Amino acid sequence: MKILTILLADVSKIATDDYVGFTFFVGCMAMMAASAFFFLSMNSFDKKWRTSILVSGLITFIAAVHYWYMRDYWAAVGESPTFFRYVDWVLTVPLMCVEFYLILKVAGAKKAMMWKLIFLSVVMLVTGYFGEAVYTTGNGPAVWGLISGLAYFAIAYMIWFGEAKQLAEQAGGAVLKAHKTLCWFVLVGWAIYPLGYMAGTEGWYDGIANLGLNMDVIYNIGDAVNKIGFGLVVYGAAVAASSDEA
Asked: How confident is the prediction for the chain on average, in pLDDT?
């Protein structure tokens, strides 16, 4: 009963026209629901897929906890919770990269590939944080955003044209299909984050980023689509692989 009272108290702080607060609340609930789904479905699959489903649940669970804090921070302060958001990303995005390694293990993926993806994702996030929260004047956001973008394109190249693609083609079947879908998430779904970055920082791209949308709304929608979507793709691959083996 006490938990329900706290939830209702938080909801009462969200104004009807507060789209940022609304997306924080919906994002938190959606991530929690996804986490419960992934954790409860783990035992439905054999060992080689169980870890992938576990990581999917961890991604959405970590995001749900951070969204809980970000929602309260927004309600209390009315400012973008940049620090909490990047802490969330620096934990969840590398885990999303780990998913590529886990589904490609059947084709002989090496840990070196996983660590490359993790390293590039950390560079992408740390430099993005520098541009958005530390070096926010002059050319700082544009320069750090460029470095972050280069790391992102390196990740995209690895999974679309590099070692990861070759392994996926060797595996074939459900693994190849899942890999292609995850690649599209990285190429299209992750592209929403640069838009949020440009909407929240000043630079030569001001005209491009003038979309009439709040940076946090862009980020919140991107998080929900990408993190839950990543997990559902892995879940679908696990179901398809289990059906083929049956």
From this structure: 88
Q: What is the pLDDT of residues 36-75, one digit of tens each?
A: 999 999 988 888 899 999 999 999 999 999 999 999 999 8
- Quick one: how far is CA 224 from the chain centroid? 8
Which among 162, 163, 153, 168 is positioned nearest to 233, based on CA atoms?
168
Among 51, 56, 79, which Cα is nearest to 215's?
A: 79
C-alpha 145: how far from chain center? 18
Is the separation of the CB atoms in 193 and 148 below 8 Å?
Answer: no
Which residue range is the domain that position 101 belongs to?
Answer: 2-245
DSSP annotation of 108 reads T
Is residue 191 within 8 A of residue 222, CB to CB? The reply is: no
| Tally of domains within the chain | 1
- Report CA-CA distances (Å) from 127 to 85, 198, 233: 14, 14, 29
Nearest to 132 by CA among 227, 203, 67, 78: 203
Q: How far is it, in rounded angstroms, from Cα 69 to Cα 24?
A: 9
Q: What is the CATH number of the domain that holds 219?
A: 1.20.1070.10
Assigned token pair, 26: 């919906």
Q: What is the pLDDT of residue 6?
A: 46
